[in-house]
UniProtKB/TrEMBL annotation:
<dbReference type="InterPro" id="IPR011040">
    <property type="entry name" value="Sialidase"/>
</dbReference>
<protein>
    <submittedName>
        <fullName>Glycosyl hydrolase</fullName>
    </submittedName>
</protein>
<keyword id="KW-0378">Hydrolase</keyword>
<dbReference type="Pfam" id="PF13088">
    <property type="entry name" value="BNR_2"/>
</dbReference>
<dbReference type="GO" id="GO:0016787">
    <property type="term" value="F:hydrolase activity"/>
</dbReference>
<dbReference type="InterPro" id="IPR036278">
    <property type="entry name" value="Sialidase_sf"/>
</dbReference>
<feature type="domain" description="Sialidase">
    <location>
        <begin position="43"/>
        <end position="365"/>
    </location>
</feature>
């Protein structure tokens, strides 16, 4: 589809598709990226993302819309953040045990992820949409980014997965020094400590998955575009092993994982790596046209940018996320991502998925469609149950 054809479908209406239903979420923005799904205390499905003209521009802000249980269409999009001098990205919604809903997101000047700050605001429902109360900085160190869901530790502490850009004085961020960490708050978000994941150079977008008996796995995007990596914790998330590769390739693009009611681990990703692709681009923000005379950061790992972001695949593991033998293509296409522009038709990525299991055994998935839209796909319980039966 062309960008214009995609825009014509962005009405939020669920339409039947093989294995479930699908919709393009409504948005007034020409670029929409980095979906996050959460279920609110009243059962409503919420989807948040960032939108504007181009990732890294100061008009990029957080938007969200709602799908009431049983509804056939998403409600209107609402803008939830309003910093005029920073690109506001990567929303994470957390419903606390007391029922209050919180939005966390990053905010950075232009493409300088090493200057990113993490902000927090309470969300409330206002009729058919969400509204945000006054924001505040979390106090996490500069260069902190987020993407994965916030979870609760067994002692009630909040655990927010982080990746640290680890600023290098006088050098420009390239992703070469990014590492993973867990942000821990023992006072419901009022203050945070940062607990690094050992051996995690290049492992970002940490996504924890509970395995039972106080054990967790975490799955990671890789800057090196080699394979999805996994670490584990046997003490409820207090300590983590060093990330190690799984059998799923990774293209240096986001993944999302969750535990299914039957105990399996589900992950949505693009199973393609730099080893099987020659597509490359200079960096994530090479189109911004911003003047930055600093040299690129030296050392660290070697990030790879530009590997195709397709197909979008649901993969299921029977062994706690070590291997993913059962796979279903959710959406397919060229996956071209050598440009972030959402209006010239060059970008055809299917990326940055969010994944949320349903009580009925189905799965809700939201993802970036050609940088022009956020697409929602609902897989039925029968479709999910069949994955693995014939593979």
């Amino acid at each position: 589809m062309t960008p214009e054809e995609i825009a014509q479908r962005m009405d939020g209406r669920l339409a039947d598709r093989d294995g479930g239903a699908a919709a393009f979420l409504p948005s007034p923005m020409v670029q929409n990226h980095a979906a996050f799904l959460a279920r609110l205390a009243d059962g409503t499905l919420a989807c948040a993302w960032f939108g504007g003209s181009l990732e890294g521009k100061s008009d990029i802000a957080i938007h969200a819309c709602l799908l009431d249980e049983g509804a056939t269409a998403w409600g209107p999009a609402a803008r939830l953040s309003h910093l005029d001098d920073r690109s506001e990205q990567n929303p994470v919604i957390f419903v606390a045990p007391d029922g209050r809903t919180w939005l966390f997101n990053t905010a950075q000047p232009a493409g300088n992820q090493d200057e990113s700050r993490v902000w927090q605001r309470e969300l409330v429902r206002d009729g058919d949409r969400l509204a945000a109360r006054d924001p505040r900085e979390t106090g996490l160190p500069p260069g902190t980014f987020i993407r994965g869901p916030l979870t609760l530790r067994d002692d009630g502490a909040w655990m927010l997965p982080l990746f640290l850009c680890n600023p290098r004085p006088g050098e420009r961020w390239t992703g070469a020094h990014d590492t993973a960490a867990m942000g821990v708050s023992r006072d419901e978000g009022a203050s945070w400590t940062v607990e690094p994941v050992p051996g995690s150079l290049g492992s970002v977008h940490m996504t924890p998955v509970p395995l039972g008996d106080n054990r967790l796995a975490a799955l990671y995007r890789r800057r090196q575009a080699d394979a999805v990596h996994r670490s584990h914790s046997d003490d409820g998330g207090r300590t983590w092993s060093a990330p190690a590769p799984t059998d799923i390739p990774n293209n240096n693009s986001s993944i999302c994982a969750a535990a299914l009611p039957d105990g399996r681990v589900a992950m949505v990703c693009n199973p393609i790596s730099a080893a099987t692709s020659t597509a490359r681009r200079a960096s994530l923000y090479d189109e911004l046209g911003e003047t930055d005379d600093r040299p690129d950061a030296q050392g660290g790992c070697q990030p790879v940018w530009g590997v195709e972001r397709a197909p979008l695949t649901l993969a299921i593991s029977d062994d706690g996320g070590r291997t993913f033998p059962h796979r279903l293509i959710v959406e397919d296409g060229p996956g071209t991502c050598l440009s972030n522009d959402s209006l010239d038709g060059r970008n055809q990525e299917l990326s940055y998925p969010a994944l949320l299991p349903r009580a009925d055994g189905g799965i809700d998935i939201a993802f970036t469609y050609h940088r022009r839209a956020i697409k929602h796909v609902r897989l039925s319980a029968d479709t999910v149950a069949r994955i693995g039966v014939n593979t």
